[in-house]
Specification:
about 425 residues, alpha+beta, Alpha-Beta Plaits, 4 domains, two-stranded antiparallel sheet, about 5% strand, calcium-activated cation channel activity, transmembrane helix
């Protein structure tokens, strides 16, 4: 122990081969077990590992032979064009980044094949000084087998430059490829290319009319349409129940047509009673149709009430009309100044619509479609409000990729769940 209290005797692993062997034994065993479990489950749980194959519209284009390892070759040989068309730009670039890492790793293996013989034929400093007689084979093929100032060290420097230049070459190629694909992706005429998704809308913009007036102010004559998300969980439950009832009615009618007799039905809450299945489900379907219509009308009326309150509190079409032409002088006209002040005050202060939150009619997300790709891209880049926690704008995803349960969730809530998931 030195006077400074720092331990100078450091234990050196003189048998790294044994350490590597132990690690490989443990972790490769775990990997093999996990791999076997995956191969077993991925065929028996398609809803988890291949959920898109449940629909023919979103099914994988890679043909699976049905065997345990039959998915490997089709997946490996899938072209970039197919990935770009069916999986999107993000997936394609993610897989290419993985391929880039694989190329760098393989190049490192090639460099090692040249460096190992140079290291193995070097002069080990411990062996030359007589401190050690046996050198581990793994240590023989590493840089630690070379003495200070040995010319073979220049091979390591050369290998470093080779790896650096090769990595820069790959990065440049991938960047050029990404720019090309990005331009190709943005120039497509898919509906979502012209649409943005706005999250965390302020309460004052949670109606189609007020939001459209606001977007028309920012992008005159370029707004195609506005759709504000509505909280309709009760309506969705009734629609799902109506669909189940319709299916039961169609089943009963099919059984009646096949057998020539009208089937009967016992409700779960009235097992002691027996009803004619066709009459029972017909009456139930009629009631559900009325209930769905009533709930739909309720949502429409609440949106109209919210819109009326917006107008009553001063948020009307005049406040969001397109700006009047600016005069040629340096000073803006009084109407232009008043319009800007009204818009700024409205976005900054909002409106007292708190009781509408209790109704949970409108949610804090909306889709806005434009007539040009340039406007849609511009809308994603500009700052919409002073508050960084409001009006988060992102590109609209593919319709099949939208998780409707997440539409309307706040940024804090999504960030919290994202943090928990990682």
């Amino acid at each position: 122990m030195a006077d400074s209290g720092v331990e100078t005797n450091v234990t050196v692993d003189v048998q790294p081969s044994l350490t590597i062997k132990t690690s490989v034994t443990i972790y490769f065993t775990i990997f093999a077990i996990a791999w076997i479990i995956f191969l077993y489950l991925q065929k028996r749980k398609p809803t988890i590992y291949a959920c898109r194959n449940e629909s023919t519209e979103t099914a994988s284009v890679a043909v699976d032979t049905g065997t345990m390892f039959g998915w490997i070759k089709p997946t490996w040989t899938t072209s970039d064009e197919v990935l770009f068309e069916f999986c999107g730009l993000d997936t394609l670039i993610f897989l290419r980044v993985l391929a880039l890492g694989r190329k760098l790793a393989l190049f490192g293996v090639l460099l090692s094949a040249a460096l190992f013989p140079l290291y193995a034929t070097g002069t080990n400093p411990d062996e030359a000084a007589g401190r050690r007689k046996e050198i581990d084979p793994l240590e023989r093929i590493t840089m630690s087998n070379l003495s200070n100032g040995e010319p073979r060290l220049w091979a390591s420097v050369a290998a470093m430059y080779f790896m650096t230049f090769y990595a820069m070459y790959l990065f440049r190629a991938e960047y050029r490829y990404y720019v090309k694909r990005r331009h190709q992706f943005l120039s497509r005429d898919d509906p979502q290319q012209y649409t943005i998704l706005i999250n965390d809308l302020p309460m004052s913009l949670r109606t189609p009319h007020t939001l459209k007036y606001y977007m028309d102010y920012l992008f005159p004559q370029d707004v195609q349409g506005v759709t504000v998300a509505v909280e309709c969980a009760d309506l969705e439950k009734s629609v799902a129940k109506r669909e189940r009832t319709r299916n039961s009615l169609e089943h009963a009618m099919a059984v009646s047509a096949q057998t020539g007799t009208r089937p009967t039905y016992r409700p779960k809450k009235e097992l002691q009673k027996e009803y004619d299945a066709i009459d029972y489900f017909t009456e139930k379907l009629s009631k559900l149709n009325r209930k769905v219509y009533e709930k739909y009308q309720f949502l429409v009326e609440k949106q109209q009430e919210l819109e009326a309150e917006c107008i009553a509190t001063g948020v009307d079409k005049a406040a969001f009309a397109s700006a009047a032409p600016v005069s040629s002088g340096d000073d803006e006209s009084s109407s232009q100044i008043a319009l800007n002040e009204a818009l700024h005050r409205h976005i900054k202060d909002g409106m007292p619509l708190r009781h509408m939150c209790k109704e949970c009619i409108t949610r804090s997300s909306a889709f806005v479609s434009f007539t040009s790709l340039q406007t849609a891209q511009t809308a994603q880049q500009i700052l919409q409000t002073e508050n960084p926690l409001e009006m988060e704008i992102v590109a609209a995803p593919q319709p099949d990729d939208i998780v409707w349960e997440n539409i309307g969730r706040s940024k804090q809530e999504k960030d919290s769940w994202r943090l928990i998931s990682t």
